[in-house]
């Protein structure tokens, strides 16, 4: 892009303009006038009259043209000073018209003509012009433009003009005498002429200090006023109206008016027009630049799909000369717009004005790329135009395909591992569930909307509060979330799931909560089997061995007392021997169930082996806790088991116990001490509970 095109070049060639040379020549002419012959060049006034009328009519015409052009082209962008000049020329033109027709020798015009009458109009016009030009040169040229004010200026101008004309015609006696028959010009007239000259010189001096503004060429304007001043000086020099000085004065004035006309025509018409043209060219070039560098291939088509024009991108991308493409059908290059489907497509985009299609675009060397075609249809001056914007979406398409493949792989991996993923966007509050989440919940993707509240509907009622608490905590302190809980599905089945979540951050700012949910029902079942006694369903020894340390640690952290109690069924061998092994099993089950029922959720019942049970009582204070344990032990003694012959069989428990707050936090030692206490209970006659004697520690 050529930056020159964008730069408005202000004309600085005024000094090289012929009008400037004319001004210089005429100035030289003026100063050489003392060498001019003083003899009249016309035989008499009548002979001069046609030339005078001609020159005056010329000046009048130019004056009125100045007014017409400036007045009609004026708008708020221009300075109101232009209107002052225009109205001045209107006044001067009209008054000069009267001057011309009042000239001595002309047919009477609104009363008897005379040199004095003609001079009244002449001096008035010159004085008005001189004062107004000086005023305009003094007035600021910026920010004073108000379109409506032009009428006020016009009214003022008409008022002054009307005043001069009416007074000049009807009350000439109001004016000083400018001319005396047989004597010639009065001193007053000459003084006035000099005064006008002084005003003009002052105006020229002021104008030369001004820089070009609002399109006005002040140099030309100054030249014009300068020539007007010289014209006035000629009028002070002449001795006869028919001599060369008088003629020169009129000629200088006419040239000066042409110069004003030229300056104001330039300001009002030429400059604004050139600026407009410049802006249009700029706009066109910028548009062309944008079109060629937009990255899209742009085609202009006629209504039948034939190529009218293309942008540079098409030529570069396709490696085809524009001339080779013109008039070809677009279907030659774009698979989405083949001639066969053109009519049908045309109906669609004619109706909707826009259409977006995916296709394949053909380059010259039979290379292809995936394209997205945006068809824009519009009418201009009842002509149909179609513009195509074709983007190369090969990379996007391949990326999308790869993304789709990866998503499918992820979904497959989730299906295999039974892990679903979910995301909660903190800003949009939107939740997204993967396919596998729906699968785990046995929910229909089309019916159930992904949300935490909807998820809660599937959470087992006993676990719901726990899930809510974890979720809320994660959202408030952004801590990771890990929870195993049950689901209660709509078909009534329950599942175990393990959920994990953590906050995703971008530039340190939390953005969304990303989580997984894994169906661990099978693992959980296996785990249950590994940690539970198959006969009684309570925990087994393995569970106890693996968990006793953390249970004790927990009680230490919480500064709570933990009791390790070993219960042993008294004379269980006899039960087996007397009623059979199956009956013995029933007794073991019954005792286990009873113990499980009596303890709190935080306590653990384990079958240690044979007819021995270990119960871990958490958070139990002594000695009151001992009463509770004793009560449970008693309760077992009240259980009734019916044997094969419907006899009631009862069993008793012996128990030995040790506590962390009395016996220390060593798991192995606690077991040994409880076992010692049990042994002691057995030896003391069974059916009793014994707390390990503290002295045995020593
Ligand atoms: N029915 C049944 N009996 C079992 C099971 N495990 C161990 N036993 C029996 O439990 C009995 C334990 O007997 P002992 O260790 O002599 O103890 P006891 O007869 O209860 O006598 P004390 O403990 O001294 O009161 C044995 O006869 C084992 O066969 C089981 O799973 N089922």
The distinct bound ligands, ions and cofactors come out as: guanosine-5'-triphosphate
> Architecture of the largest domain, according to CATH?
Up-down Bundle
CATH topology of the largest domain: Rhopdopsin 7-helix transmembrane proteins
Number of helices: 22
Biggest pleated sheet: 5 strands, antiparallel
Major beta sheet, strand line-up: 4-3-7-6-5
Shape: elongated
Proportion in β-strands:
15-25%
Q: Mind telling me the C-alpha Rg?
A: 57 Å
What assembly state would you assign to the polypeptide chains in this entry? Answer: single chain
Q: How far apart, in Å, are the first and last alpha carbons?
A: 101 Å
Helix percent band: 40-55%
What integer is the average pLDDT?
89
| Structural class by secondary-structure content | alpha+beta
CATH class of the largest domain: Mainly Alpha
User: What are the segments in which pLDDT stays under 50 over at least 5 consecutive residues?
Assistant: 1-12
Catalytic activity: 2 GTP = 3',3'-c-di-GMP + 2 diphosphate
Protein name: diguanylate cyclase
Cofactor: Mg(2+)
EC number: 2.7.7.65
